[in-house]
Amino acid sequence: MVQTSNFTMQEGDVPSLEANQALVRVKFIAFEPAMRGWLDDVKSYVPPVQIGDVMRASGVGEVIASKNEKYAIGEYVSGMFGWQEYAVIKETSDKIGAPLKVPPAVPPQLMLSALGGTGVTAYLGMLNIGKPGKGDTVLITGAAGATGSIAGQIAKLKGAEKVIGVAGGKTKCDWLLDECGYDVAIDYKSERVRRRLREECPTGVNVFFDNVGGTLLDDGLLNMARYGRIVICGGISAYNETEVPPGPKYYMQLVARHLTMEGFLLYDYTDQIDEARSQLSAWIQEGKIRHREDIQHGFEQIPQTFLRLFEGKNVGKQLLELEH
Ligand SMILES: NC(=O)c1ccc[n+]([C@@H]2O[C@H](COP(=O)([O-])OP(=O)(O)OC[C@H]3O[C@@H](n4cnc5c(N)ncnc54)[C@H](OP(=O)(O)O)[C@@H]3O)[C@@H](O)[C@H]2O)c1
To answer: Largest Cα–Cα distance of the chain, in whole Å?
Structure first.
C-alpha cells in the first residue's frame, strides 16, 4: 500500500518563464488510481515517476504570468501540473496531459471530474466497447467512483433497462440509487455479490464495465448473458499488490458464453475526446447526468488525499483545493 511517508514536501522558487511558457497558480489537483502505477518502476503507457521528481497529477489553475499569446492572465487552464502550487505550461505534443483552456462558463474543477479524464473515460469505454442498447442489463464495479458513477448513467441514457452498481458501503449505494439513477446497488462489503447478481439478472448481464478486477470480475463473469461485452477499464483491487495476483478464475466463461473482454485506455480515442466532452457537458446542463466532487483542502493533505482512493473514502471524483 502506498504510504504518506513515500512523499516529502519541498519548497522552491516559483519558476521564471522562458519564451512560449505561461505560469499557472494551481487551484485544484485531481487524484486517479492510475497514479499508483506511475510509482512502480516498470515500463507502461507513461514513464514511471522517478524518486525525487514532483509527483505527476492533473490539475487546473489560473494563469498568473504569460509569455505565450495563447494563454492570457486570468484564464483557467487544465493540464498535467503535478503536486505543486505553481506550474509552468509548456507546449507538448504528448497526448497525456496536454494543456486545455477551461471555457469561461465552466467551473474549473469540472474539467477534472465529469468533463475531465474520468468522465471522458466512462463515455469512451462505455460507448466504444460496452455499446449498451435498449433493454440491456449493465453492471458497473467501482460504481460510486468518478468513472463508474458516470458510466452507469451513460448506459441508462443509451437505453439500458437495468443498471446495477457495485460499491463499498451504504452511503455510496444510496447515492447511486437516489441520485445517479442506478436501478440496483450492491454493497460488496456486506453482501454476496455473486448471489445478488444471480437474483437481479436472471437473463444475465449484457455489458459489464469493470473498474476493480479480482473477485468482483469473477462474480461478473459468472453472471454474463451470452454474447455479453466486458469492458476492462481498470483493476484497482490489485494496484497495491506486491505480487501480481492470478488472473480471473472463471475466464472460461468467455468461451462458454461467447463473451468479449476488451481493455482500453482513454488515450486510444484521442480523436473522440472533444466529442465526449461536449456531449457530457450537454447532458450535465440538461440535468441528465449527476456528478459529485469530493474536495479535500490544503497542500499538506495531498498524500493523505491520494490514499483515500485506495481506502474507498471518496464518493465521486477525488480532488484537492489549494488555498493560496
Ligand atoms: N482505462 C482508462 O483509460 C482509465 C482512465 C481513468 C480511470 N481508469 C480506471 O478506472 C477505475 C476508477 O478510477 P477513478 O479515477 O474513477 O477512481 P474512483 O472510482 O473515483 O476511486 C477509486 C474507488 O475504487 C474502489 N476501491 C479501492 N480499492 C478497492 C479494492 N481493493 N477493491 C474494490 N474496490 C476498491 C473504492 O470504492 P469502493 O468504496 O466502492 O470500494 C474507491 O473509492 C480505476 O481502476 C482506474 O484505474 C481507467
So the answer is: 63
**312 in ligand 1 pocket by Cβ < 6 Å?**
yes
- Kindly tell me if the per-residue pLDDT of 48 is higher than 70: yes
Q: What is the mean pLDDT of residues 240-254?
A: 94
Give distance in angstroms: CA of 309 to centre of ligand 1.
7
Q: Is 168 in the pocket of ligand 1 (CB under 6 A)?
A: yes
Q: Ligand 1, closest atom to CA 266?
A: 3
In the reported structure, the alpha carbon of residue 204 is separated from the centroid of ligand 1 by a whole-number distance in angstroms of 24
Helix (H, G, I), strand (E, B) or coil at 232: strand
pLDDT at 278: 96
Ranges of each domain in the chain? 4-113+291-321, 117-267
Q: Which pTM was predicted?
A: 0.96
Can you give the pLDDT at residue 308?
98
Topology adopted by domain 117-267: Rossmann fold (3.40.50)
In this structure, which topology does domain 4-113+291-321 adopt according to CATH? Quinone Oxidoreductase; Chain A, domain 1 (3.90.180)
Percent of all residues in the chain with a pLDDT value above 70, rounded to a whole number? 99
